[in-house]
Amino acid sequence: MVNEEELKKELKMLREKRESDMRVKKLKKQIKAEKFAQTKGGKVFNAIGNFGANIGKKVFSPQKQNYSKKKKKTPARVSVNEIMARLPQ
Which of 1, 4, 21, 88 is the residue whose CA sits 20 to 30 A from 46? Predict the structure, then answer.
């Protein structure tokens, strides 16, 4: 019969192997990208990409609102008695 602890160890080893493989794959991808960035074509594509990213920021960012306008002051509220006193008799 298979022991529960052995199964847990095997599961742990499989997870660690998968995580290790993912890290290795990510590092290889980063190395490949760095090497490409150093080539003539990579420099051109990076410049084009950066230009496009800057344009996208300008196009899709909200326009600044001008909030420096002065607000109109509303007259002070008066009581009903004062209003009635102002009315012609």
Answer: 21
Three-state DSSP class for residue 52: helix
Q: How many domains does the chain have?
A: 1
Residue 46 belongs to domain spanning: 4-64
DSSP label at residue 69: P
- Closest by CA position to 29, among listed 37, 39, 19: 37
38-52 pLDDT per residue, tens: 888 878 777 777 776
Alpha-carbon span 89 to 84, nearest angstrom:
9
The whole-model pTM stands at 0.47
Indicate the residue type of 83. Answer: I
